[in-house]
Amino acid sequence: MSQTPSILGRAKELVDPATAAAVSGLCDELRVPAEYHLQGRGKGTRPALAILSAEAVGAPPETGVPGAVAIELIHDFSLIHDDIIDNDAERRHRPTVWAKFGTGVGVVVGDALHALAFEVLLRDVSPARIRAAKNLSEGVAAMIAGQSKDMAFETRSAITLEDCLAMERGKTGALLSYASSVGAILAEADDAVIDGLAEYGAHLGVAFQAVDDLLGIWGDPERTGKPAGADLRERKKSVPVVIALNSGTPAAEELARIYARAEWQAGELDAARALVEAGGGRDETRELACTHHRKAVSALDSLAQREEVVGEAVEEMRLLADFIVGRDF
Amino acid sequence: MSQTPSILGRAKELVDPATAAAVSGLCDELRVPAEYHLQGRGKGTRPALAILSAEAVGAPPETGVPGAVAIELIHDFSLIHDDIIDNDAERRHRPTVWAKFGTGVGVVVGDALHALAFEVLLRDVSPARIRAAKNLSEGVAAMIAGQSKDMAFETRSAITLEDCLAMERGKTGALLSYASSVGAILAEADDAVIDGLAEYGAHLGVAFQAVDDLLGIWGDPERTGKPAGADLRERKKSVPVVIALNSGTPAAEELARIYARAEWQAGELDAARALVEAGGGRDETRELACTHHRKAVSALDSLAQREEVVGEAVEEMRLLADFIVGRDF
User: Fold this and answer.
1) Deepest of A51, A139, A280, B171, by most Cβ within 10 A of its Cβ?
2) How far apart are CA B8 and CA B40, in angstroms?
3) Do residues B164 and B238 touch, judged by C-beta distance below 8 A?
4) A230 at B interface, C-beta within 8 A
5) Which of A58, A198, A160, A136 is nearest to B137 (CA)?
């Protein structure tokens, strides 16, 4: 595991108080469960990208804060609703919002954070804010479409790798791409720079999700905060599984048979895991993560050659990409 | 029942194709359940208000269409999620989205319509669109806060009438107020006119909800599409119930006792209904509806005196108010 990049701590210091201030304006019925959820927050990759994308175009980090808060709130809304959809009662070793407060509260608190994200961005109306809100609405729509496809995959056979990657580009990539460019949008940077940052984020998203898919099968429960092989237990058609199912090997046929059974006997989880590996799912997903990590870095290299782009911020974006893709897999 | 105002049909013709076009852009997994929900749509009061609020300031009805579509999508999102929250398996004599497609699909389709509303408004960026989106984000936030309070009331005792009205101003009033002014916002009308229209809508919202609360207790199931006394069965603390509970009468004490019981014996629904009436809940809620109907009309009268305001559209807003408040109660 690479060392934790300093931007994560720096962004947290800047963004967390602003997020807390936004949430503190909710009525008690929404605020209490929202704050409970926020206490179990992750590393803050998305807000860090938003801050760096402001700094990358020479703006002060504060310029990226409304975008960082909006993206954090959208991410939280999606997690709260995903936990209802997936019937997950635990996240990061704590009960999820619906498990603690009830499904109805989970639905409405997620809705409240979704709405709050747009309120935060639209509070001060400026041309840059509008573009930021417009792009956010498109990113959120893509994320939700990806989530709906992910759900549909669980009961659909014959998913191609391209179907699966398209789903993940929506579910994870759209918001990471947005996070990686919103600071530059708010700083009113050139379109070419905004596009380059968004491209970096889109590739980072594919790499990030590929690593997440590997952890969902081979990750250490202590570190992931989820049961071992969580994605297999839920019969997720994640990238490694789809690669193995489409491998045309004997492992593919056997994996399809096991995946079709609703209940698993002892040893079948381990068997499924071994079959995904035998079908090439592990190696090819690692390769995919590396390829998109490389493409993300290459987008940064192009940006760094532009006069108006700040080298230090771009270097921090590279470190963040290394950190994300360097998670144990 | 007053005659159906012609604006409802006229607005439907204008708005429904635009809403259908927006929804048709969703991926199949979202589009199919969204279209299923839209087939069971109501009278279209909110889109009609949006169209009239454009016409009221001399703009063509088309100016109000993006606002009408956004408000329709937000209303649909809230209904789909409310049905999950309230565990309602039927709406307008058809299975609700979650009952037909599953809870997860209900959550994600609601989310998709919520996001789509902002996409529709922000698609063409103009100063008017931004203000429309900003006000929508505030209206949606108020609606969600009202919904969360409504949920909390079910298990809370000692709700004052003011608590209850504040909840309803959020849950119903905020979006009706927005619907009644968004056309004028999109037409870039004067602030004073926009505010007057919003005031009309806010009073209309209170009157509308008061009538809805009466129908939730005394409405004919054939017409409401809900079981008789639906709100009492769910132990809703709606306005008539809260008035009766706070009436200081013997009926109040008896009603509180019945309301505290999770299971009702035969006859207790009728007993509860009679106690709400004995505690003044029916008469005072009717009075409240009339008062706010009058205030809504008075806001229109002030508007009609302004040179830039179109009398015909204001007259149609008055007819719509009469129609809404004139529902059998």
Assistant:
1) A51
2) 16
3) yes
4) no
5) A136
* Residue numbers in A near B109 (CB within 8 A): 148
Question: How far apart are the C-alpha atoms of A215 and A77, rounded to whole Å?
Answer: 23
Question: What tokens appear for B280 in the block?
Answer: 């003044």
- Cβ(B209)–Cβ(B325) under 8 Å? no
pTM for the whole thing? 0.94
Q: Is A111 at the interface with chain B, CB within 8 A?
A: yes
Amino acid, single-letter form, for residue B324: I
Q: Number of A:B CB contacts under 8 A?
A: 136
Tens of pLDDT, residues B91-108: 888 999 999 999 999 999
ipTM for the whole complex: 0.93
Question: Per-residue pLDDT averaged across B83-92, rounded?
Answer: 91
Rounded Cα–Cα distance for residues A232 and B312 (Å): 63
Measure the CA–CA gap between A170 and A176, rounded to whole angstroms. Answer: 10
Q: Is B30 on the interface with A (CB under 8 A)?
A: yes
* Residues of B in Cβ contact (< 8 Å) with A141: 112, 115-116, 119
B104–A85: do the CB atoms touch at under 8 Å? yes
Q: Which of B29, B111, B140 sits opposite A149 (nearest CB)?
A: B29
| Residue B328, pLDDT above cutoff 60 | no
3-state secondary structure of B95: strand
